[in-house]
Design brief:
There is one protein chain. By secondary structure, this protein is α/β, with parallel strands linked by helices. The protein has a domain of about 170 residues: Rossmann fold (3-Layer(aba) Sandwich), CATH 3.40.50. Helices cover about 40% and strands about 20% of the residues. The protein is built from eight helices and ten strands. The strands form two sheets. Strands 6-7-8-3-9-10 form a six-stranded mixed sheet, with helices on both faces. Strands 2-1-4-5 form a four-stranded antiparallel sheet, with helices on one face. Helix 2 crosses helix 3, helix 3 crosses helix 4 and helix 6 crosses helix 8. The radius of gyration is 19 Å and the shape is globular. The mean pLDDT is about 90.
Length: about 270
């Protein structure tokens, strides 16, 4: 069976203000199997989000190919749901209406769309919050609404770009457990970008490392053989987790230090 996402020798190049082309990602090969949870880590500016945008069809590679479930990607990836760091909730709509938007756009009758939205609000722990507007919700509650908005479409693939980044540490743990509970039910393929190595290890089946940019490459691929189901806070206390963290951090730390050095050189010009 073809992988859910298959990036083959992908280069992504940008030209800014007439300056020479800037190659953000170079020769990237990454396969995400159906039902697999893959976390992508790397220093700031290493092209993690750029790679995610290529899988979403928001960026077209300058070289290489992107295949989705065995088919070349042309235009937007309609099989994927994308959860950004900043939510896309409409402030003038209630939680129920926001969650129902993807179904209504797809032609689902409004009554049915709202009923299914209520079901998803219950699944993300927001029973009774359907009539509340975004400004009435906490950061974690808004993120739950945004997650329901993405999952209600039942996408085959989840693309997640630091979705819990703005949240406090305790809320991130809660959201991590919620995500794993929902993922465990249907086992979507997941590409999850994060700066938090602990978060990456506790959630995923594999952690891949990107080098510092420009010309960022995938340089590490670590299986995470921790038993499932997992409790995000509890798993971090195990010796197995600590050993994995030491191994992966050894490689990641080198790239983070390189990234700081590169930034200092650029600022000195």
């Amino acid at each position: 069976m073809a992988p859910a996402v298959n990036l083959k020798a992908v280069d992504i190049t940008f030209t800014v203000g007439g300056k020479p082309a800037f190659r953000a990602v170079a020769n990237a090969d990454l396969q995400v199997a159906r039902g697999e949870f893959v976390a992508i880590v790397g220093p700031t500016g290493s092209g993690k989000s750029t790679l995610l945008n290529a899988a979403a069809g928001l960026l077209k590679p300058s070289a290489g190919t992107v295949e989705i479930e065995g088919e070349p990607l042309e235009g937007l990836n309609r099989k994927a749901g994308y959860l950004f760091q900043a939510d896309a909730l409409m402030p003038w709509k209630t939680s129920r209406d926001n969650v129902a938007i993807p179904l209504e756009i797809a032609g689902t009758p409004r009554r049915e769309a709202l009923a299914r939205a209520d079901e998803w609000l219950v699944r993300v722990g927001l029973r009774g919050f359907g009539d509340r507007y975004p400004h009435m919700l906490s950061g974690g509650q808004r993120k739950r609404v945004a997650m329901a908005q993405v999952l209600i479409r039942d996408p085959d693939i989840l693309l997640m770009d630091e979705p819990f980044g703005p949240l406090d540490a305790q809320t991130r743990l809660i959201m991590g457990d919620l995500l794993l509970d929902l993922w465990q039910e249907e086992r979507k393929a997941v590409m999850f970008v994060t700066h938090d190595l602990e978060e990456a290890i506790s959630l995923s089946d594999r952690v891949v490392i990107m080098s510092t940019g420009p010309d960022a490459r995938l340089i590490g691929d670590f299986p995470i053989p921790l038993e499932r189901p997992r409790d995000v806070s509890e798993i971090k206390l195990t010796p197995e987790f600590q050993q994995l963290h030491r191994e992966i951090w050894q490689m990641l730390k080198e790239q983070v230090l390189k990234a700081y050095g590169y930034a200092e050189k650029e600022n000195a010009r």
